[in-house]
Specification:
Helix content: 40-55%
Strand content: 5-15%
InterPro entries: Cyt_P450, Cyt_P450_B, Cyt_P450_CS, Cyt_P450_sf
CATH architecture: Orthogonal Bundle
Keywords: Heme, Iron, Metal-binding, Monooxygenase, Oxidoreductase
Number of helices: 15
Family: Belongs to the cytochrome P450 family.
Shape: globular
Organism: Kineosporia corallincola
Protein name: Cytochrome P450
CATH class: Mainly Alpha
Structural class: alpha+beta
Strand order of the largest sheet: 4-10-7-5
Radius of gyration: 22 Å
Length: 428
Amino acid sequence: MTTTPDPTTPDPTVPDPTVTAGGTAARCPVTGASLEDFPFTRENPFAPPARYADLRANDPLPQVRIPTGKTPHLITRYADVRAALAHRAVSSDVRIPAFPAMGAGEQEAAARTRPFIRTDPPEHTKIRRMLVAEFTMRRTEALRPRIRATAERQLDLMQRSGESADLVKDYANVLSTTTVLELFGAPAQDVEFFRDVTRVSGGRDSTAEEVNAALGRLFGVLNALIDERRANPGDDLMSALVSRYLMPELITRQELLSTVGITIVAGRETTTSMITLGALYLSRNPRLRDGVLADPSLWPPVIEELLRVLSVADTIPLRVSTAPVELSGGTVPAGEGIVALLAAANHDPAEFPDPDRVDPDRTQKHHLAFGHGIHQCLGQNLARVELHEALAALFGRMPALHEADPQAALDVKPDSATYGLESLRVAW
């Protein structure tokens, strides 16, 4: 930002004119410029914070203050987010001090465990190549019947239990977690365990000790699974990774633990949020719901639009510039943190006319809900299949699904890296 520093001591009884919607005033430790606190709050569960549009138009690369006290730049324009995520001078290495982790515990644990999404080539390339063949469209399509069976089983349980249920706990979380665990051949009896691990390890308020303890519990489960698959290999993904990469010593056990751990945590969390918010959106938009139920061929374009509009992984792409990065909105200097806002990009009217509307006929299908560049989400094909089967089964069985208490405030997750709901009571 270019605001001139104010050398005077502010009077605490006088409102600071630099405070704007979305946060309180803070001072950049380098320039003294006035900064806003980030992240901002969504006023509407189906749209990014209104502040994004103001920044995109008037200050597209602002510096902000995040909970760890760091002052990264936000990137708000579609073209700039896409360019930054593919830029050679933009790093994902969490060990760089300026890396804009939202929580101190997150950065400390990631620097120690080295999840591949927080690394650069060649480390990242090695792990991504190992996984990419396992997440092809053909292989994920083969999982569709099992995903549908899980959805139908949970709907049976919901209907037998009464006339209402928690859509997160009783449906979305079970389906998304069971799917990714079955993919790896992990035991799926206690899906809430994995939800709790994700809640702590991805929480902005979690300390390093809490994150390390949560990951320790997760790695304990995965270590036992690795040992089991070494002795008794099956046809699951963990068996393939153990036999093809761990046993020939092409990767270390720590690399395998970190890779499987982040894939499970990230895969189940984002899909749980998308199923829940997607169902809520359709329940509040009966014309769209009825249209897709009448014409099931509309499910794929509706899913793409829900992914774009909801953009639950909005603040996941955290980066650091290793050299000056020139974008349409300005230049990010070398050595500074970057938060590439996926929701801001996906609601950029320059790229998506009437961006807040879910439009199955939209011709612009190049949204960034799964990121862009070498770190683009590996599990996007699986996520699409899960969303399709989860929502089609849910509304096929319960077309009148609605909030049990429409007047109640939504139970938004308070400090998660992924936007979503902690719970949602629904009736049918």
